[in-house]
Design goal:
With about 525 residues, the chain is of the alpha+beta class. It folds into 3 domains: about 280 residues, BirA Bifunctional Protein, domain 2; about 110 residues, Herpes Virus-1; about 100 residues, Rossmann fold (3-Layer(aba) Sandwich). Helices cover about 40% and strands about 25% of the residues. It contains 17 helices and 23 strands. A 7-stranded mixed beta sheet has the order 3-9-10-16-13-12-11. Helix 5 runs antiparallel to helix 7 and helix 5 packs parallel to helix 8. It is globular.
């Protein structure tokens, strides 16, 4: 099964079992908009809770915020979104399809990288155990030719983007002979800019003065509340403000399921520091955020850092934490040193001083900011794609299992009476009520016990509790573990401890020295 097939199966599985539905499906849907189902919302909330605990609860100097989606339109002028929040778009005249010009080039470069990997894999099969991959990559003529081509493409791409040179960007597409994915033709229009913000009207009068925007990011709500939080919370530099909230971008090329959507959710933290100390904190948060990701338990090898070749206008350092999705390594979280750009711009546009008086130095200054920003929907997709597994068992049967870390699993415990009689359902429901206080549980008495196990495997339930006739005699139950399918006979009153311990072990503790 190749990556595309696996991804299609994952999407179908997510719908079938109540994780994610296409939005407005009975009206034929709405492109790049999705609804989270009964299990999806539980997984999403568990991811939020894990992030919030790591960022806010575990730090004395980070607090939370929930700012409004509607904000004064001048905020987006100050932030640069009105003038510069654009994508370079190009149309194919034959297919009438529109694409992001830079993404066409990036995907072309990625295809060349795939050729390199095929060369390497071919050599590995040929030479077997004696294969020296590093030496092969450094000396093979085809690999080196591909690497030179990739470097040339990316140098030209970065130069064109830095200079906003759309003619050079179009020429790069032509020189690379990049075809339209739909028509296969190279009949391209000129490259044009397209602003990504959704606009709407506020109040009862529809005129220019009433135009506002749906926020394209949550960070600006933190910046404009900097003094409110600092003064009301008596916060001292360095300190952070964290927020989870919706953002909206009119993405033209919205695709890859929930990876890129028009309505999405962010988990962001802005950390305010003394000017000159931003690189120290940038390094700290780069390492700290990677530790959190690896503590989740999705697989350390699935993460990597990617340094930015092109920095945003507000940044002096930026790095992405990338995750290996079914469609390759893509950005999951960004860590940015934003300098004092945001607070200085809001100070300029609002006419209000956004400075901090530092009692240790005796001076006032506009703080610098280090940002951590992760897409909640992308984190959801990372957890789901890492967990999805199709297995052939020793007896020849197949099962689909979501190996979601227990701490994040939507349902922690399934309570299953062996049969629907002899007092077993009554005992099972009483046990269910006692466990519900601390854990999200399900009750299931339909079909054979084997089929019920398979249903719980498919939604990622880590613990199945079976009540049988022996239970009525000695209050012992069978605990069945999702990943190994092994079973233990335990006392029923031990269940809360067993489940709690299993959930703690699935997420390695973070040790903050902030």
């Amino acid at each position: 099964m190749n990556a595309d097939e696996r991804f299609k199966k994952l999407i179908a599985h997510a719908k079938e079992y109540g994780f994610i539905f296409p939005s407005s499906e009975i009206y034929d849907g709405l492109a790049a908009v999705y609804d989270y189902g009964q299990l999806g919302v539980e997984l999403k909330n568990n991811i939020k809770a894990s992030w919030w605990n790591a960022m806010v609860r575990q730090h004395d100097n980070i607090v939370g915020l929930d700012s409004a989606i509607f904000m004064h339109p001048r905020i987006w002028e100050a932030s640069g979104h009105v003038g510069a929040f654009n994508d370079p778009l190009i149309d194919n005249r034959d297919s009438k399809k529109r694409y992001r010009a830079d993404m066409l080039v990036e995907e072309h470069a990625a295809k060349i990288e795939e050729k390199i990997e095929k060369e390497v894999e071919k050599a590995r099969q040929k030479f077997g155990a004696s294969f020296d991959e590093a030496h092969f990559r450094a000396t093979n003529v085809n690999v080196q030719r591909h690497l030179v081509k990739i470097l040339e493409i990316r140098v030209r791409l970065n130069a064109a983007l830095q200079a906003n040179d759309f003619k050079a960007l179009r020429q790069l597409i032509i020189d690379c002979e990049i075809p339209c994915p739909v028509s296969g033709s190279r009949n391209w229009t000129e490259v044009r800019q397209f602003n990504l913000m959704f606009s709407t009207r506020i109040g009862s009068v529809s005129d220019e003065a009433s135009q506002i925007y749906l926020r394209p990011e949550t960070a600006q709500g933190i910046f404009v509340n900097f003094l409110n939080v600092q003064k009301s919370g008596r916060m001292k530099i360095p300190f952070g403000i964290a927020q989870i909230g919706k953002a909206f971008r009119n993405e033209i090329i919205a695709r890859q399921f929930i990876f890129r959507m028009r309505e999405f959710e962010q988990m962001e933290m802005q950390f305010f520091v003394r000017p000159g100390e931003e690189m120290k904190w940038f390094k700290y948060w780069k390492e700290e955020r990677m530790r959190w990701h690896r503590s989740i338990g999705l697989g350390d090898e699935k993460y990597r850092f990617h340094n930015h070749d092109k920095l945003a206008h507000y940044a002096n350092a930026a790095v992405d934490i990338e995750f290996e999705f079914p469609f390759g390594f893509k950005e999951l979280e960004g860590i940015h040193s934003r300098t004092d750009y945001d607070l200085s711009r809001h100070q300029e546009f609002s006419g209000r001083k956004l400075q901090y008086f530092d009692p240790e130095t005796g001076e006032s200054y506009v703080p610098y900011v280090v940002e951590t920003s992760i897409g909640l929907d992308r984190m959801f997709l990372a957890a789901l794609s890492a967990a999805y597994c199709e297995e052939t068992l020793d007896n020849g049967e197949e099962r689909v299992v979501l190996r979601i870390p227990a701490a994040l699993a939507p349902v922690k415990v399934a309570v299953l009476p062996l049969v629907k009689k002899d007092g077993l359902p009554e005992y099972a429901r009483e046990l269910l009520q006692s466990l519900r206080t601390d854990f999200n549980c399900q009750y299931d008495e339909k079909d054979s016990i084997g089929k019920r196990y398979r249903r719980q495997d498919a939604i990622g339930t880590p613990f199945c509790i079976t009540i049988d006739h022996q239970t009525l005699k000695d209050d012992t139950v069978t605990v069945r573990y999702r990943n190994s399918m092994t079973q233990d006979r335990v006392s029923a009153d031990m269940l809360p401890l067993i489940v709690a311990a299993g959930c703690r072990q699935s997420q390695r503790p973070l040790q903050s020295n902030l």
